Automatic annotation (TrEMBL):
Keyword tRNA-binding: no
Record protein name field: Mitochondrial carrier protein
Signal peptide: 1-22
SUPFAM superfamilies assigned: Mitochondrial carrier (SSF103506)
TM region positions: 181-202
Keywords in alphabetical order: Membrane, Mitochondrion, Repeat, Signal, Transmembrane, Transmembrane helix, Transport
Solcar repeats: 179-266
Length: 278
């Protein structure tokens, strides 16, 4: 009783497989032949994105020489320098029977501004390749955005760190008596609030440049972003997020300086103990 359903299921599965294979063989009779027949030696490096365009397309073809290996080189650009950044390099072998040549990139390629390809035939055979090089001059906008963000982060962190430590030291040293937990937490909290208040405008500019479209940027630089943001949203836009950062900065930076003072004191005691032993 149990074996019969199992046998019927197996027979049904085999019939389904046979029907599917028969349908594939009927509708695609040359599929297997095409896969085994096409032995092209294609080369592909990189990938294209929206907005890329074809920079260069050329047929590189050499006839065979008796008992010899034929070679050729292709350089893009053929001379000078291009502002376009290459995103994809394709070398499409036009000989599909496996007797075609081979293409290799010897210099440059995707992500750079030039590429050099070397073509080499099999002995006593010719080769034929269609070369397609894609890229975009807008790639430089991505590099510009990256440089702007690095510059903003550097400026922001230098200013924030200077204000941060100056305010903390001023608050702590201005209090009579020794440091205690309350003074350290209050000084650290105020240092965090004031440092965030100073760099909030730079943080707003950084966020806008980061969210800008690298393929079609609206901002040419920090000053351009500042001017356009002021004209569109007014001066209040440079204070966005201050309240949220203040609520977070006070307890976080207070706890940070408590840990800092504890670690500093522990390291100082260890150093003094080692000096006494010596």
């Amino acid at each position: 009783m149990v074996a019969r359903p199992v046998i019927l299921a197996c027979v049904t599965l085999l019939l389904h497989i046979a029907v599917v294979n028969g349908a594939l063989a009927y509708y695609y009779p040359s599929l297997e032949y095409q896969v085994t027949r096409n032995n092209s030696h294609n080369l592909s490096q990189g990938w294209r994105v929206y907005g890329d365009r074809i920079l260069h397309r050329e047929l590189v073809k050499r006839s065979y020489k008796l008992f010899q290996v034929v070679t050729a080189d292709l350089r893009y650009p053929s001379w000078g320098y291009t502002n376009a950044t290459i995103t994809q390099v394709l070398a499409l072998d036009q000989v599909t029977d496996g007797t075609g040549g081979y293409a290799n990139i010897t210099r440059g390629g995707a992500g750079l501004h030039e590429v050099v390809l070397r073509f080499k035939s099999q002995r006593n055979h010719s080769f034929s390749f269609i070369i397609e090089i894609y890229g975009s001059t807008k790639q430089s906008c991505r590099e510009l955005s990256f440089c702007l963000i690095v510059e903003l982060l550097s400026s922001r962190d230098v200013i924030a760190s200077s204000v941060y430590m100056s305010v903390y030291n001023g608050c702590v040293e201005g209090q009579p008596g020794s440091k205690n937990l309350f003074i350290i937490m209050m000084a650290g909290g105020f240092a965090g609030i004031i440092s965030w208040g100073v760099i909030i405008p730079l943080d707003v500019i950084k966020s806008r440049i980061q969210s800008d479209d690298p393929l079609n940027p609206k901002y040419k630089g920090m000053l351009d972003c500042f001017v356009k943001s002021y004209r569109r949203d007014g001066l209040a836009v440079f204070g966005r997020g201050f309240l949220v950062n203040t609520l977070r900065a006070f307890p976080v930076n207070g706890a940070i300086f408590v840990g800092f003072e504890w670690s500093y004191g522990m390291c100082k005691n260890i150093g003094e103990g080692l000096s006494l032993q010596n």
